[in-house]
Design a protein that fits this description.
The protein contains 12 helices and 14 strands. The longest helix has 13 residues, at 44-56. The protein has one domain (2-324): Aldolase class I (TIM Barrel). Helix 3 (103-108) links the parallel strand 5 and strand 6. The strands form 2 sheets. A 12-stranded mixed sheet has the order 9-10-11-8-7-6-5-4-3-12-13-14. It has helices spanning 44-56, 75-83, 103-108, 123-130, 135-147, 167-171, 173-176, 203-213, 277-283, 288-300, 306-311, 321-324; strands at 2-3, 9-10, 12-16, 61-65, 89-94, 113-117, 151-158, 179-185, 217-219, 229-233, 239-243, 256-259, 264-266, 275-276.
């Protein structure tokens, strides 16, 4: 088990397998982003070496993110190998465009937890936000996920003047569907700024709007180390969560590390000077002891919260969400 200096057990990995995506969402992927050369990305073998090492040291959960994970060639080979490492929980984050053909295979691998990014239920608005006309494909994917009884969380980044008028309609998906609708404060990581944008809407306002529409909205118990405040409309099939990603109210119980497709380990989403474990394993091939020593050292210096991480970072380094991995 690995613990940070504040006594928090760190046992959850978010691993980005690619910085590429088949959608170019305005808030996570700037128009002129430069993708990394293939040789700079972690190979599948390197990822599996890292994950197996972490699993052997008490890490229980892993989430595979991107970009869009399914945009990487031969991703199912990687997921098959990952499924055999013994993690208690494997989650895949997707935008829903490519996943339809893989759902049954994912279930066979025991990967039944999916986080679907969907910021709007309006087709034309979807095209404006993502710059692609794939709304019908994504909705088809969502419906099939639910038909197959997969565990689905729908992640919607709330942006004032863009989709905040859909907070209620998105929340209504939880009424009759076994789904967790998750509203997320917009992050400042757009590759150009680290301050709140004019589109920012904080979590308190989101909750207020939900309570206005659903007077019987109930606060339910938050899972240990949850990054969301969890609610449920009385007698609803699903749940509603609000993630104060910019307000950072959940930092005290954070149990996560993030590893980018380039092999950069960050102990905080707001950190911008992480450890290159890619360099560690390439300079010390096959040396798990050296890898875990480096990771343990990084975790021991994990910041108290996102505010401290942001204040001590290099203000000249500004990464987009597609590089960080969500």
């Amino acid at each position: 088990m690995l613990y940070d200096s504040f006594g928090r057990k760190i046992d959850y990995i978010r691993l980005s397998v690619t910085d590429r995506c088949n959608l170019r969402c305005n808030y996570c992927m700037p128009e002129n982003i430069v993708f990394a050369p293939k040789k700079e990305l972690l190979s599948y073998e390197e990822m599996l070496f890292i994950l197996e090492s972490l699993r052997s040291n008490g890490f229980r959960k892993v989430r595979i993110t991107g970009g869009e994970p399914l945009a990487r060639k031969n991703i199912m080979y990687f997921l098959k190998e990952l499924s055999g490492l013994g993690f208690e929980e494997i989650t895949l984050t997707t935008n829903g465009v490519l996943i339809n053909d893989y759902l049954e295979e994912l279930i066979e691998l025991g990967i039944t937890r999916l986080n679907l990014s969907l910021d709007t239920l309006i087709k034309e608005k979807f095209k404006t936000i993502t710059r692609k006309d794939d709304f019908d494909v994504v909705m088809q994917s969502l419906n099939r996920m639910l038909d197959l009884n997969m565990i689905v969380k729908l992640n919607a980044v709330v942006m004032h003047g863009v989709n905040d008028d859909e907070i209620v309609s998105l929340a209504e998906l939880s009424l009759n569907n076994k789904i967790g609708v998750r509203f997320i404060e917009e992050m400042p990581f757009d590759g150009a700024s680290k301050t709140k944008s004019k589109r920012f809407l904080d979590y308190k306002e989101i909750i207020s709007r939900l309570e206005t529409r659903f007077p019987n909205l109930q606060k339910i118990e938050d899972p240990i180390a949850s990054t969301a405040l969890n609610y449920k409309v009385k007698d609803a099939t699903g749940t509603i969560g609000i993630t104060p990603a910019f307000s950072r109210t959940f930092c005290g119980t954070c149990n996560r590390i993030r590893i980018s497709a380039l092999g950069e380990l960050r102990t905080c989403l707001y950190e911008n000077n992480g450890l290159s474990i890619r360099d560690v394993i390439r300079n010390n091939p096959g040396n798990k002891t050296m890898l875990m020593k480096s990771i343990s050292e990084a975790i021991s210096h994990k910041y108290k919260d996102g505010f401290e991480a942001e204040s001590k970072g290099n203000p000249m380094i500004k990464n987009s969400m597609s590089i960080i991995g969500g």
